[in-house]
Design goal:
By secondary structure, the protein is of the alpha/beta class.
């Protein structure tokens, strides 16, 4: 069955260009092109679409207003913005209702990959209820405007470290949070960093991007109050998992890119728990109660109540945000790495190990059974014999850097 995609743009030339650009996808996609949000909503009332791609600035109903309506009326539809405008106010209006923002001009391969990934991820969700959860929720940890601007800047090969530092510093609260993280024990620096430019230069843009997302997600949800759920514990667990995952990757002599992706995925691997706690608060309280009463892992309790777990939700959400495939894979499969098609050392491997190490030291949810190593999976990679080495390396790292504070 073809994926149904609706493109909306008030410029006829832009629509014709998209039609030509994507002509080769006709066998895979059923595409329609309309020139206003009003027409698009009327069309959607007659026939459903899997994905909607809208321009930002349009007369009458702009892209933000249109996608907000789509979110309310058709929560299962994946919503993307494709626009040449970088209007901060409009971007902020879109982050709650838009899964991903793409900047014009966007080359054919990038557009095809983004839409295909969005469509494929939508199909991977196990139930209609969960598809609706992820696509309709207003209380998702939204993509910060700083992150969107940073991604756009990094597409320009001329962008330097100073430029990225200036983007980060636009959001004072987030800058403070990032610098607090950078100066925590988890980075083991020999001196304090007070300048965002120095932080970017030291950590690299990929790590800074992940810290922006991480800081934003937890800042949005610091108000959550659930019995048996501590956002401080989840925060600390995520930091430990990220650092341990990167340590494992480096111990395996992985390339810098793979190690950085392991760190990013480690930071964000439990973001699905925030989605559950913020959007289905009463049901998630049932999860926590069930886990404590029956001595179940939070994962098992989530599956019993929701039919899926936080890894499914987190991977789906961050895939729609356009994070790299290895990062999304690591988040979605960190509890079941044996299900991955390609059995090679990857960020998934590092995050699976890092999560278990972190669970033993600082569980994300206190007083419930913690994650265990998938020994069959690790044996298939011929690295299971390294487990004791990694545990000792982590203990040594903690001792040397006094990793008892989350910063």
């Amino acid at each position: 069955m073809k994926t149904r995609i609706l493109f909306v743009d008030d410029e006829d030339l832009a629509l014709r260009g998209l039609n030509r650009l994507l002509y080769s996808m006709r066998d895979e996609w059923d595409m329609e092109f309309l020139d206003s949000g009003e027409k698009a909503l009327n069309r959607m009332a007659i026939a459903p679409f899997d994905v909607v791609v809208s321009d930002m600035r349009m007369p009458g109903m702009n892209g933000a207003e249109f996608l907000n309506e789509v979110m309310k009326r058709y929560p299962k539809t994946v919503r993307l913005i494709l626009s040449g405008y970088a209007d901060r106010d409009l971007i902020l209006k879109c982050v709650g209702s838009t899964h991903q923002y793409l900047a014009k001009p966007c080359d054919a391969d990038a557009l095809k990959m983004t839409v295909r990934r969005a469509a494929e991820l939508e199909r991977t969700m196990k139930t209609d209820a969960l598809r609706q959860l992820v696509t309709r929720c207003v209380e998702l940890p939204s993509v910060p405007a700083v992150f969107s601007e940073m991604v756009e800047a990094l597409q320009d090969p001329e962008t330097d470290i100073e430029t990225i530092g200036k983007i980060v510093v636009k959001d004072g609260a987030m800058t403070a949070k990032i610098l607090k993280l950078v100066n925590s024990a988890f980075f083991g620096l020999g001196h304090k960093i007070a300048d965002p430019n120095e932080a970017v230069a030291y950590l690299g843009t990929d790590t800074i991007k992940s810290l922006v997302l991480f800081a934003n997600a937890f800042a949005e949800y610091e108000r959550i109050k659930l019995e048996g759920f501590s956002i401080e514990s989840l925060y600390a667990h995520s930091l430990i998992a990220a650092k341990a995952a990167k340590m494992v990757a480096l111990q395996q002599n992985a390339e810098r890119k793979l190690a950085d992706e392991s760190y990013v995925a480690g930071l964000l691997h439990d973001v699905g728990k925030l989605v559950f706690a913020a959007n289905l608060t009463e049901d998630y309280q049932r999860v926590l109660t069930l886990a404590h009463e029956k001595k179940l892992s939070s994962l098992a309790a989530e599956r019993e109540i929701f039919g899926a777990d936080h890894a499914d939700i987190g991977g789906y959400l961050l895939g729609l945000w356009g994070l790299p495939v290895p990062v999304v894979e690591a988040i979605a499969l960190h509890h079941k790495p044996h299900t991955v098609a390609q059995k090679t050392f990857s960020p998934l491997t590092a995050v699976h190990i890092g999560n278990v190490i972190a669970s033993a030291e600082k569980p994300s949810i206190p007083d419930v059974p913690v994650s265990k190593f998938d020994l069959e999976y690790l044996a298939s990679l011929k690295i299971h014999a390294n487990l004791d080495i990694w545990k000792k390396e982590w203990q040594s790292y903690c001792a040397e850097n006094d990793v008892s504070q989350t910063g």
